[in-house]
Specification:
Blueprint lengths: L2 H18 L4 E4 L5 E5 L2 E5 L2 H16 L2
Antiparallel strand pairs: 1-2, 2-3
């Protein structure tokens, strides 16, 4: 996969995550780790799907679900 395609895929993932988890700032660092920040909460992981699972748990626990 070319560099441009990789960048497009990551941009699409960022867009999806930002839409799903409003209130979180989401990105991917130079180390390759995906991260999300909301207030004093920080989630950092090398796997984007792990990030999604962890954010769902945090969001659900905040709602009291």
């Amino acid at each position: 996969m070319g560099m441009q395609q990789t960048a497009r895929n990551e941009a699409a993932r960022l867009t999806e995550l930002a839409a799903e988890f409003t209130g979180w700032r989401i990105g991917r660092g130079g180390s390759g780790h995906w991260w999300a920040v909301r207030g004093n909460e920080l989630v950092r992981t090398p796997d984007v799907e792990d990030l999604r699972v962890r954010l769902r748990r945090l969001t659900a626990s905040r709602r009291g679900a």
